[in-house]
Design a protein that fits this description.
heterodimer, A: 2 helices, elongated, B: two-stranded antiparallel sheet, globular
Amino acid sequence: MAKGKASKVYFNQRFRRLIMERKTLFIWALVGLFGVVIVMLAAMRVGGVSIRSAGNIRVMGKLRLDNELLSRGVPVNVKYDPGQIQSNSQVIVLGVRSASEEAVIKGIPPIALTTGMFAVVIPCAEEVVSSGDVRLVLMDEQKLVLAQSENLKLAPAGPECFYNNQ
Amino acid sequence: MWINSATLKGMTEPISLPPGAAYAIIAFLLSLLPAGLFIWLWYLRRNDRPVPTRTVGYAFLAGMGLVAPAFWLERTASDMWYEYWPATAHYFAGAVLPLQNIRDVLWPAFATFIIVATVEEGLRYLLLRWWYRRSRVVDQVFDGLVIGIAAGIGFATLENTLYFLNLFSEGSVDTLVFVFFLRFMISTMAHISFGGIMGALMARAVFQIYRQRRRQLYAMAFFVSWFAHGLYNLLLGLNLTVYAVLVLLPPLLVLLNWAGRRDFFAMARKNGRVLVRQKAPVTEQARVMKKFFKQFDSPWNKEAPWLRERRVRYTLIRDLED
């Protein structure tokens, strides 16, 4: 009789332990899911190019701007690492690229690329480049993209365009 | 006295390294953190280690050794692309955003699937195929899985080292923390899953006695990893990082499932020869359960059921605990 009672108690303990293990498993699954979400958000912030396995290839240069909002008619400084931009071409252009179009807005002499910074003014005319989500791209005459910026917002023509009559 | 002030002064001067060497050492030590963690998770913490530690070490070093030829091949491909198709060569580095037409996806897909994935997974495939066919240590499918994972970790370690070294050289220390964390979690686990799946399928292929099935498994070992790697790289190149992380989850879950599959622990080779009847080693738990069922179904217990509950259950728990 004593042995039967002992085994019954032992079974209850193991049953309770099994329930606790399932709860623990559920909690760990939630923690794992939360971790995956955090990783996804951090990856979105950093960008995929830093994470991918791409080996020893020529990287596309990055154009950096101080402000993600581009205003038409206002000069904006574009910075980059001169070492990342390698081109033998004599014609380098800066373009604005959106989902539907691409427009060249400025020519840049190759010698100016060694400075690491240049200024650009986005034209006021909506016909040249539409407002919305855009990126700046640096290309050569053969349309080889040398560098591109992060996603930017191009605002419609503002007071600067009207006062400067552009 | 043989110790003079000049000697003392020399002894107190700090040892200094050239900056490049110091950065390289720091970058390598940073890269060893995820490698150490995942090797511990998959191998060192197990009491029943399937392969000797030196085999895992060789696999790790072999994985690191694959980086040089892979990078050389990718660089050569990139240079050839720049020379012969310069207008599209930038797609090798990633997509030009925002996407405007189907070419903006197809060209990066060509780069990731045909060049990067083929080179990296192809080199790993050749290494593992050559190794598994000759090795006497690899006698279970799980051994192949562990060695594949170790090779993937080695590749990821050296790749991370070069990435961090690049960041140090550029002075991008502010982004180092994020990039380190993400390459720790994402890039290393990507190589682990690709390498583990290829290793397991390769081992199944080597131990398969039927030729047609063996060819299928060899093909799967390459193409499954190749496709997963290419898709993962493509999504990162298109800046769809959320989907790239999601693409990693199925291979990882498959690996976790395979780590518990009993048939992967069957002894498939002995003294270098593939066994026709491949049986899993009998564990203590399996032996106890077999004894339990033999006793439970015995005529003695069937004729005296009032004794079954007390006797059989008590001894089962006691034997399992032992």
